[in-house]
Specification:
The chain is an alpha+beta fold. It has one domain (17-198): Aminohydrolase, N-terminal nucleophile (Ntn) domain (Glutamine Phosphoribosylpyrophosphate, subunit 1, domain 1, 4-Layer Sandwich), CATH 3.60.20. The protein has helices spanning 65-86, 92-103, 143-153, 160-177, and strands at residues 17-22, 27-32, 35-37, 41-44, 50-54, 57-60, 111-116, 119-125, 131-134, 136-140, 185-190, 195-198. The longest helix is centred in the middle third of the chain and has 22 residues, at 65-86. Keywords: Autocatalytic cleavage, Cytoplasm, Hydrolase, Protease, Proteasome, Threonine protease, Zymogen.
């Protein structure tokens, strides 16, 4: 995740590591807590890169802080307006399409996770507005490292607690080698009832 500086400095591309995966009981999102400038200077060690969007959905943040915060405000506002007008939460498909539209032209690549009538679902949203659904995915500068861990550890029929362990291990794998990721892990557990976000999490090995 990148921070924005004064007008006399150019915002530099930086990294982060976020992962999302589907379990039998819900969705797990995880992200590191480091905000850096240019991928070399650590500007903040307490960034929370997961935000609740509506009662059963959340997104991870990447890219510039300002753009990410603006995206969250717009997506949350749209979801709230939809619920107020229709008396029900937006479906994950509708949220994903909206997120894709809002991201066009930015440098962010968030992950969207949530539970609707079709069950637990995870989407990767790209800067061109593309929407890709999968059972597990990763984004940010630590993507390759995190994806390698996910491919090794992920299994169908994981419980929510097992999914938390897999997700945190994937982020930890990236933190080991990616200098733009670090300073702890935030984990979100998303079920059909609510979104619970833990600021500092550690893995419990899955064998």
């Amino acid at each position: 995740m990148e921070t924005e500086t004064g007008q006399d400095m150019t915002v530099q591309k930086t990294g982060t590591t976020t992962v999302g995966l589907v379990t039998t009981e819900g969705v797990v999102l995880a992200a590191d807590r480091r905000a850096s400038l240019g991928g070399q200077f650590v500007s903040n060690k307490q960034s929370v890169k997961i935000e609740r969007i509506h009662p059963t959905a959340a997104v991870t943040l990447s890219g510039s802080v300002g753009a990410g915060q603006a995206f969250i405000r717009q997506l949350r506002s749209t979801a709230n307006l939809y619920e107020a007008r229709r008396g029900e939460s937006m479906s994950m498909d509708a949220l994903a399409r909206t997120a894709g539209r809002l991201l066009r032209g930015t440098r962010s690549m968030p992950l969207l996770g949530g539970v609707d009538e079709d069950g637990p679902r995870v989407f990767q949203i790209d800067p061109a507005g593309g929407v890709l659904e999968d059972t597990y995915t990763a984004s940010g500068s630590g993507t390759q490292l995190a994806t390698g861990a996910l491919e090794r550890l992920y299994e169908e029929e994981l419980t929510l607690s097992e999914g938390v362990s897999v997700a945190t291990q994937a982020v930890e794998s990236a933190i080991e080698r990616d200098t733009a990721s670090g300073n702890g892990i935030t984990v979100a557990r998303i079920t059909s009832e609510d979104v619970m976000i833990d600021i500092d999490s550690t893995s419990e090995e899955v064998h």
